[in-house]
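Here we describe the complex-level prediction in full. Unlike the single-chain runs in Section 2.1, the two entities below were treated as one system.
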Amino acid sequence: MNPTVLLVIVLICGVELSFTRVIAANVLVILVGLVIMLFRRANWRSYLRLFLLPLLPALGVWFSLAYFSVGHDIHFAWVLATRIYAYSFLGAIFTFSTTISETLASLEQNAHIPTTFVYGMLAALNFVPKIRSEVQKSKVSAQMRGITLHFWSPQLLFKGILAALNWSENLAEAMTSHGFAENQPRTHYSVIQIPWWNYLVSILVLAIFQMFIFTGLP
Amino acid sequence: MHEQKSNAWHLRDVILLTLTAILTGVIYFGVVFLYNGLTALLTPLGLAPFGNDLILGLWTMAAPLAACLLQKVGSATIGEILASAVEAILGGQWGISTLISGFVQGFGSELGFTFTAYKRYDMFSLSLSALTTTIVTFTWDLFREGYAAYHGWMIIALFFTRLLSIWLFGALLVHAVVSLLERSHMLRAE
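The structure predicted for the assembly as a whole is:
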């Protein structure tokens, strides 16, 4: 499926999940996520991750609702615990169906997000290792002077932002000198289109989802 | 440096905000473990939401920081959406659904700067922004996190915990960082 179409569906479902009290809808999302993961032959670690990471928040919300909600609403406790899993699996549905570069390319070509944003983000994302080492460097050089920087120290963020200011200037200039013009029309090596059946599938998916939400299921 | 700046978004701004988002992500990565530990402790007591609200300020910091760095209309909202996109891409726990909370948080923070007509980027605006962020995200979480189902005392306590956290990180810490930047004359006036 086209990443932009999928993103829209996932976001609509995500917002709707936030306001519904239907366990069945949450379970549906989880099952769809599992089917997609099976279909994509996800590695067992992904299953483990998706089971374990939301476990603590889900337990946390279940206990606090069971103890402190008005009338000790156990049904609502289950709604929220499964909702947390549903959110995680919504994410999985997206990650296992497409890649980041495909998504960004589709957002540019299909959703017409300004190219400045798409390519700016792409450029910056390559800097993750550099930023990591910059933070480490700041910490170590502070330690050389007998100062320990914690995550709440403004100096740590300040030094990082100084580096980011520098890099952003340099990167932007480098991209401009390589012929990137802000928000000018571009030609594409791989043209991404939205096949007609994508619309059909999205209407179907959203219709089924509404049926789960509005037909009085538990 | 508080002159009115142009509202056009340049490549440099987008890269800067994305880098800042990654930076905060790198710095606060360890806090996730703290959060998990705290939640684990609070879970049997049924007080886990306090763990969440106590560190929420860290997730909402990107918005006021972006507002102060760029001083444009919409920079808080766009900054927070970029930050949540970075989180989604780099494998945050909630994947793509962080985009929704990113928008809500960014919008909440933006209101604080809108109310001061995008003229002030000082402690007053930052505190106001912390208040609007708290009100908007809390209203959202009355539904999303089911806060509306709790007893009144718990809702009030959660609200003030969240306000404190967002103010500490989004106003006090951001203000400290921005004054360091101003003193270093690195914020370029356009």
